[in-house]
Amino acid sequence: MRINKFISETGFCSRRAADKLVDAGRVTINGKLAELGSQAEAGDDVQIDGKPLQAKPESIYIVLNKPVGITCTTELDVEGNIVDFVGHPERIFPIGRLDKDSDGLILLTNDGDIVNRILRAENNHDKEYIVTVDQPVTDEFLKGMASGVEILGTTTKPCVTERVDRRTFKIILTQGLNRQIRRMCKEFGYQVKRLQRVRIMNIDLGDLPIGQWRDITEEERKTLFEILDAQ
Fold first, then answer.
1. Model's pTM, two decimal places?
2. Which residues are catalytic?
């Protein structure tokens, strides 16, 4: 088996990344420096940077319907931290943030690579929210929100808005400024009463109850990686 495939099948990295490791002289097979196209098989002593190649632990990807009051931090001394709340047997961490006073979908994982890939693409992927405000939602308000709003010294990117009912609307963002939706609403004189995230990219909250979590499905995982690979 070609060395790049041998490495990738352990889950250590992709074939392309394995080729780069080989090309950089960081891979040995039975003590000999590997070359692009070198062969390896079960039982061979394959090392990367002088350390035996080991399979990565199984990757975990879960969807949590976060309640209000839970803080998206891995700092266990913070009361109401998301790690203790989920209580997963493996060490996992949230991908990005969802404000303490907001509820809804947040992803957690033990896969540091995907965290970086999703966060790097944060200004390019959809995040959908359902927002309830303190007064009637007008066409003018929806148009203004969608067109871009001056907050934090910048203008928000154009986005999609849609009325849900008299005081509730849907908004789909492709960026993640600090407390962005609340700040945008405030510019129009609206106060957010409830902010719920219902989708990140291809992952939907669906009917998952508040406070509950589930593993993402194989189909969701496949589509997620296809989206990330295309960026």
1. 0.78
2. 99
